[in-house]
Specification:
By secondary structure, the chain is of the alpha/beta class. The chain has helices at residues 40-47, 69-75, 92-97, 112-124, 140-153, 170-183, 194-200, 218-221, 224-231, and strands at residues 2-11, 14-24, 29-33, 57-59, 62-63, 76-79, 158-162, 186-190, 203-208, 211-216, 236-240, 243-247. The protein starts with a strand and ends with a strand.
Length: 248
């Protein structure tokens, strides 16, 4: 179980995160939503250990600073908004296979099993037909799906995704959420698409000005009245076939 207790973070005198306390349910999809600049990406950076947390975040009762970096990399994978452009000459298949790196010993080659896992994730994310292409030749949406496949190929216990639906067509947005459901692990996903958050996630966290404004099931938390206060626009809801839809 991933838990955060009293996490604070500031840059100079600007408070970015203010007394964040959360428990993320195991094997569920938790979305983090909120206005731009409210601290969503910074929170993910702390969970991924890109930013130090001073023993405020624990995984299965152990502070993440106490977990060896390689061990933590096997447990937690992140898709950030910052992508490497130094790998533009790499093939798609090679990039996805890099997701297996935390599971390898030093100088150990990728195995047949590693290749099989990478192939499966390329198939699941709809990029298998791109496997022989260089990453620099792809569209923004195709590149995004490559890095999603790489993160999933890591087979982590916790998958962190920072705005993964950016650049994706509606078809692939919905396909990604279906795959995350089938992935069956703990997924923490920053979303700007509030309709997807309401429709596809098990748990929701609303951030505002570096704080947790609310947390709970989307049908309970993502109400028009509450969201209008956060985003300052009117919202509307509908329910069909047990799906909760949110409009603005």
């Amino acid at each position: 179980m991933l838990q955060i207790k009293n996490l604070n973070y500031k840059i100079k005198q600007q408070i970015i995160l203010n007394n964040i306390t959360l428990t993320f349910p195991d094997n569920k999809i938790t979305c983090i939503i909120g206005p731009n600049g409210c601290g969503k990406s910074t929170l993910l950076a702390h969970i991924s250990s890109l930013l130090k947390s001073s023993e405020k975040i624990s995984l299965d009762g152990i502070y993440i600073e106490k977990i060896p970096a390689r061990t933590y990399a096997r447990k937690v994978a992140i898709l950030s908004q910052r992508q490497e452009f130094s790998i533009d000459e790499f093939l798609v298949s090679d990039i996805v296979l890099m997701g297996r790196y935390p599971h390898k010993k030093r100088f150990q080659d990728y195995s047949t099993a590693d290749i099989r896992i990478a192939d499966k994730m390329m198939l699941n994310t709809g990029i298998k037909h791109l496997s022989g292409k260089k990453i620099k030749t792809l569209s923004g949406g195709e590149r995004q799906r490559v890095f999603i496949a790489k993160a999933m190929a890591q087979e982590p216990d916790i998958l962190l995704l920072d705005e993964p639906t950016n650049h994706l067509d509606v078809k692939y947005k919905l396909a990604l959420m279906r795959e995350l459901k089938k992935f069956g692990k703990t997924v923490i996903i920053v979303l700007h698409d509030l309709s997807l958050a309401a429709r596809c996630c098990d748990n929701s966290i609303v951030m505002y000005d570096g704080t947790i404004a609310a947390a709970g099931k989307p049908t309970k938390i993502l109400t028009p009245e509450f969201l209008e206060k956060i985003f300052e626009v009117p919202f509307y809801t509908a329910k069909q076939n047990d799906n909760y839809f949110l409009y603005y």
